[in-house]
Design goal:
alpha+beta; Beta-Lactamase; 5 domains; 6-stranded antiparallel sheet; 5-stranded antiparallel sheet; elongated
């Protein structure tokens, strides 16, 4: 065996010309190189299965490095186990008997030093020069990596098959070209009622109800097809809604699609019921909103007469008792109006129709004015009323000043109502928060206090500290619920701390960035005293379109006391006739009137004017739900006054549209 082929290549000084050598010599050299190759495992045996010759690689791997002379003449019994030797001898005897090669099954444990190594052996007949079989020879290869890869592949195949067969959702696979079903999971068999054999005799389209026709994949493009809805029919005739999710898969070299069929019948039924319930809830909410709007209109219309007449009455010469009675009528009407507004606000919040506006407003003045509105009630009680606004609170801010005023007034009114002695303190500050312009407003009182267990419920509708407070202090329990919803809509937080018998502190925190301008106005109505003198150089002529006799009288008297001349139309059609006959500086237009309402009358007026002139139309309406203002503006009206209308509001609206130095029109007087 003395041919050293391991390590670096050995170069001789004189290269032999192999072409000149005899063929036998070339074959001998090639054979010697094969035997000496450490990577190859050859062995040669005689007819008794005794080793004649082995390669270097075979010696190294199988015998653990024995010398070749130690192995020559031995049999497998000296190297392997008795059972392995018996099997090997039988294989070699078969080769010698048949003259055919024998391919041994790949098995582990045939290399004593490496029992986990898998080897595969091919055994062939060893022949002499005459072709007679004189023994066997073979090649042994290490196939461990191949076997491990195959085992991993088989394990994955088992996993995938288990996932397919035992997936709780029905899964099918079908050939793309014929649509023939080629696989069906256990869940598919259980759900659809077909056996595996029945599935394999069907196409994917056979699952469709007869009236649906084709329900297959409609030959989609390759790849994941996403989810699509179909209808399938079980073997017993039951028709179900399914969501189909599919993708490409290759099975036995055939292009197929694998399909997951999710039964969504119950889900769709529940969704339909939910949609129907939602529609019913929306309809009920709309009906409630419409009912509230109608009730609001019906209440506000006479309330406009009550408060309007009371206001006119207070302008007359009254003795103290008469004035006290008229003032009580006004206060009672205003309380009724607050209740109506609270109910409407709750309805708007529930319907998601209450919007928050982001405008520039006078923050400090809004806080002061909200507190000032509670002063008359506070003065009637023996306690101190204190308003503290820190220097850091900006003069002007960006936010919804009207809604902020509503929240502050609610908190202050509650504090005043439930406090009989001590103090009510309103404190506005700007807590230091990184990168935020936070304004905190606290309203503290020394009133009756609230149990801790009730605090979290105080911001729910119709909730008060105790049932007895409803009788003693009055109220509906809506104010804090509205305040809480408004603060949340404005992106802020609201909370309370309280001790029974000691008092309460209600607080809000809002992000109110300081305004870059100083044009903001306080979110409060102007003082009625602004109506003391006429703001016009000559008396404007105003047309009142109103069907209610009481409201006609209130509007005319109020306009006259504002320095205006007023004419009355009973409906929209009569208003158009009077506008055609005479020039008016403005029209106070009721929205709901018989024969022709204010919307239609305004639209017709704008059509007649055709852009050549523009008569200001100010809506007067008792409708207070969301969309009322938008409807007025869409009809061509210029401004909006909600009933009941106060004199100060009326003057402000007229001043917006009638200039102080008005032109005197010599047109025809109305008939």
């Amino acid at each position: 065996m003395g041919i050293p082929l391991e390590g670096p290549a050995v170069r001789s000084k004189h290269h032999r010309d192999l072409k000149a050598l005899p063929r036998e010599e070339i074959e001998r050299l090639c054979f010697l190189n094969m035997i000496a190759n450490p990577a190859e495992r050859f062995f040669f045996k005689d007819r008794d299965s005794a080793f004649l010759l082995v390669s270097t690689g075979w010696l190294s791997d199988v015998t653990g490095g024995r010398a070749v002379d130690e192995v020559i003449g031995l049999t497998d019994a000296a190297i392997h186990t008795e059972g392995q030797a018996r099997v090997s001898n039988a294989q070699e005897q078969q080769v010698m008997d048949t003259g055919e090669p024998f391919f041994c099954e790949a098995l582990p444990g045939w290399i004593p030093e490496h029992p986990d190594t898998w080897v595969s052996t091919v055994k062939m007949p060893l022949r002499d020069e005459d072709g007679d079989i004189i023994g066997t020879w073979g090649i042994t290869r290490d196939v461990t990596a191949q076997m491990e890869a195959e085992q991993t592949l088989h394990a994955r195949e088992r996993q995938y098959r288990s996932l397919f067969e035992r997936n709780p959702q029905p899964i099918l696979a079908y050939a793309r070209d014929t649509l023939q079903i080629v696989l069906a999971s256990n869940a598919a068999v259980a759900a659809y009622g077909y056996s595996i054999e029945e599935f394999l005799s069907m196409t994917i389209n056979d699952l469709a109800p007869a009236e649906d026709g084709v329900v297959g994949e409609d030959q989609p493009t390759s790849g994941f097809a996403g989810t699509r809805e179909r209808r399938h029919q079980y073997k017993d005739g039951t028709i179900i809604d399914v969501e189909i999710t599919s993708d490409d898969v290759t099975l036995d070299d055939h292009d197929c699609r694998i399909v997951i069929c999710l039964n969504v019948t119950e889900r769709k039924r529940a969704a339909a019921e939910l949609a129907a319930a939602h529609d019913a809830a929306v309809q009920a909410s709309n009906m409630k909103s419409a009912w509230l709007a109608n009730i609001s209109h019906e209440i506000r219309t006479p309330m406009n007469g009550v408060l309007g007449v009371a206001e006119l009455l207070l302008d007359t010469d009254l003795d103290p008792e008469q004035r006290a009675l008229a003032e009580q009528v006004t206060r009672s009407g205003e309380l009724m109006l607050e209740l109506i507004n609270d109910i409407l606000d709750i309805s708007k919040i529930e319907a998601g129709q209450l919007d928050i506006e982001l405008t520039d407003f006078a923050l400090r003045e809004t806080i002061e004015q909200a507190c000032a509105l509670a002063v008359p009630r506070a003065n009637a009680n023996p306690f101190e009323f204190v308003v503290q606004i820190d220097d850091g609170v900006p003069q002007h801010a960006l936010g919804d000043g009207h809604r902020l005023r509503q929240v502050i007034l609610n908190l202050v009114s509650n504090a005043v109502k439930f406090t009989s002695s001590g103090a009510v303190t309103v404190h506005a500050s700007t807590p230091s928060r990184q990168g935020e312009a936070i304004v905190r407003i606290e309203v503290s009182d020394t009133g009756i206090g609230i149990e801790a267990s009730r605090l979290t419920q105080m911001f729910e509708p119709f909730t008060q500290a105790d049932v007895s407070t409803t009788r003693e202090y009055g109220g509906t329990g809506l104010g804090l619920a509205i305040a809480g919803e408004l603060v949340e809509l404005m992106g802020g937080t609201i909370g309370a701390d309280s001790t029974p018998g000691v008092g309460s502190t209600f607080w809000i925190e809002l992000s109110l960035p300081a305004s870059a301008t100083s044009n903001g106005r306080a979110a409060h109505p102007a003082d009625a005293s602004s109506a003391a003198a006429s703001p016009w150089s000559s008396a404007p002529r105003v047309l009142v379109a109103e069907d209610s006799p009481v409201n006609q009288m209130v509007a005319v008297r109020t306009l006259e006391r504002c320095g205006c001349r007023a004419d009355v139309a009973n409906n929209g059609r009569q208003a158009l006739e009077m506008l055609s006959a005479c020039h008016y500086d403005a029209v106070l237009m009721d929205c709901q009137m018989p024969d022709m309402d204010g919307y239609a009358a305004t639209a017709e007026l704008r059509r007649r004017e055709n852009g050549e002139r523009h008569t200001p139309v100010i809506a007067m309406t008792a409708l207070a739900m969301t969309g009322a203002v938008e409807n007025c503006l869409a009809a061509g009206m210029d401004d909006y006054l909600g009933k009941p209308i106060r004199r100060a509001q009326l003057i402000q609206a007229l001043q917006r549209w009638i200039p102080p130095e008005r032109e005197i029109d010599l047109g025809e007087e109305p008939s």
